[in-house]
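Sorry, explain these tokens?

___
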Amino acid sequence: MTVLQARISVAEYFGELSTFLGRSVRMRLITILSGTLAAMLVAFFVSRMLPATYNATATVRLARLDGADLMTPQATAIHMNSRPFLLRALDATDLPESSGDRGRNLILDTFNARPETSGSLMLFATAASEQQARSAVEAAVRQLNQDQEKLRDPLLSELNGQLALADTNVASLTRIREFLATADSTAPSASGDPSSLAFRRMWLLDLTARNEEKLAAAAAERRALAARIGPTKTYPASLSEDVTITQVSPRPVRHAIFAGAIALLVLLLYAMVRMPGPARAD
């Protein structure tokens, strides 16, 4: 068989197939149209009767202390996806605790936290109302901060203690500077020996210079400690932006189109299979 013959055979095959399909559709056109329309109407009205569900999506900035993560994004996601964590978070909200509550069960079954970047997570939750979906995400973030207090508080207390010592050191050196500044004027008059007076002034200048060096170093240390617990390096977990709420169901138009497409395909196959014998012979 040559290539030309193969091409002609394929063309003839599809031509006969399209002819056969056209005859099948014409013979049962009313059945196909009515069946497709009926399937779409049924799907539309059934979908409208389904209870509404809403998806909540949010980005969470992970907590940091002294510029380092309290927990890695992977560990934080595993912790937040655990059942005990979700139960504690939901218990802190106004959601009912009954096992038959649809909204609470939806949240427990659909809540998901997954790493997004090196310092953030994406949270997903489905609930029976917009308020429940939003409350679930916000409660999860609050619960995360409460759980991380056990890790954050000892380290933060240590840094605050170092900062308090630095403040005390700066205050002490400042008092010494003030004393040295007035020591020469308040001291009794020198005996008149110029060399003793010059030596005493040199001694005061040396003490003042050393104190200034220590005060500058202490102030720099104090600023460094303050920066370590400042808002740019130490902060709790928080929502990076507002929670995004989208309605998942019901979506009757989408369901009706999907049901109509399936019904149309089934009815076309039925029309081709059930085509009468004489028509097939043609």
